[in-house]
Amino acid sequence: FDDRDGWIWMDGVFVPWRDAKTHVLTHALHYGSSVFEGERMYAGEIFKLTPHSERLKRSAELLDFEIPYSVAEIDAACKETCAKMGLDDCYVRPVAYRGPEAVSVSAIHNKTHLAIAVWDWPSYFDPETKAKGIRLEWAKWRRPDPATAPSAAKAAGLYMICTMSKTAAEKRGFSDAMMLDWRGYVAEATGANVFFVQDGVLHTPPVDAILDGITRQTIIEMAKAKGIEVIVRHIRPEELSGFTECFLTGTAAEVTPVSEIGEYRFKPGALSLGLMEDYGRLVRRL
Ligand code: PMP
């Protein structure tokens, strides 16, 4: 991925893609002191850009570091990077990290850096797979208690369990893994939130152990505007037998129907497919 043409925004300047490097003694590499965002530009506009930049700042604050750029400056830098790359439809990845100024558990002597890379990323799952629904297994790892880790942050350290869970699932032929939280409630997939359908009503977990997805918030608003009731509540795994539809939401996943989680089966239905189409129109402003 590092050997390609292009530009990456690093601490305020554009650096050729191949030269956009940090030292091996970067604090973030050793101690996980990094937060990031995942955004998408559709037809020339980054969907919910400011909420993403705000979440990036909040994630850093949850890890006790401050990004030395304002939300408006981060917004502008994301747009400039897309323009510099000549892309109208792309994935946008800002990452803020503590640098190589010192190697110590304490970060008192480290600076915070910000980099923004953008690239072509058409769809996480192809349309055919999406229409059928993807297959998930249960993850071995659980989302931590907010008293154990800053679970509300989009922090690289929290993705350790996501990477292990998703890699294990893919090795066994599944598309993703569903994680429980530390109490045993259904939490989220490794890079997306989850919704279930029962009798025309949507059910989704509260954000006390998961990332409060911007797509999740959008879907809740869209569903309510369509007159669909949304219940935000803790869901026990055994309750999955009572749901008929299930879908994931996320910037990369968009709205992706699910056909299987472990022993439970679902069928993409009118509600999931309707929201999937509505979301596709909303992000493209159609
Ligand atoms: N949960 C996790 C663990 C994620 O990585 C993501 C993707 N950022 C989401 C949920 C969905 O968040 P969003 O809708 O803001 O992309």
TrEMBL record:
It catalyses: L-valine + 2-oxoglutarate = 3-methyl-2-oxobutanoate + L-glutamate; L-leucine + 2-oxoglutarate = 4-methyl-2-oxopentanoate + L-glutamate; L-isoleucine + 2-oxoglutarate = (S)-3-methyl-2-oxopentanoate + L-glutamate. Pfam families: Aminotran_4. SUPFAM superfamilies: D-aminoacid aminotransferase-like PLP-dependent enzymes. InterPro entries: Aminotrans_IV, Aminotrans_IV_CS, Aminotransferase-like, B_amino_transI, BCAT-like_C, BCAT-like_N, Class-IV_PLP-Dep_Aminotrnsfr. It comes from the Bacteria. GO terms for molecular function: branched-chain-amino-acid transaminase activity. The keyword Amino-acid biosynthesis applies. It is an enzyme of class 2 (transferase). Its EC number is 2.6.1.42. Keywords: Amino-acid biosynthesis, Aminotransferase, Branched-chain amino acid biosynthesis, Pyridoxal phosphate, Transferase. Pathway: Amino-acid biosynthesis; L-leucine biosynthesis; L-leucine from 3-methyl-2-oxobutanoate: step 4/4; Amino-acid biosynthesis; L-valine biosynthesis; L-valine from pyruvate: step 4/4; Amino-acid biosynthesis; L-isoleucine biosynthesis; L-isoleucine from 2-oxobutanoate: step 4/4. Its cofactor is pyridoxal 5'-phosphate. Acts on leucine, isoleucine and valine. Belongs to the class-IV pyridoxal-phosphate-dependent aminotransferase family. This is Branched-chain-amino-acid aminotransferase.
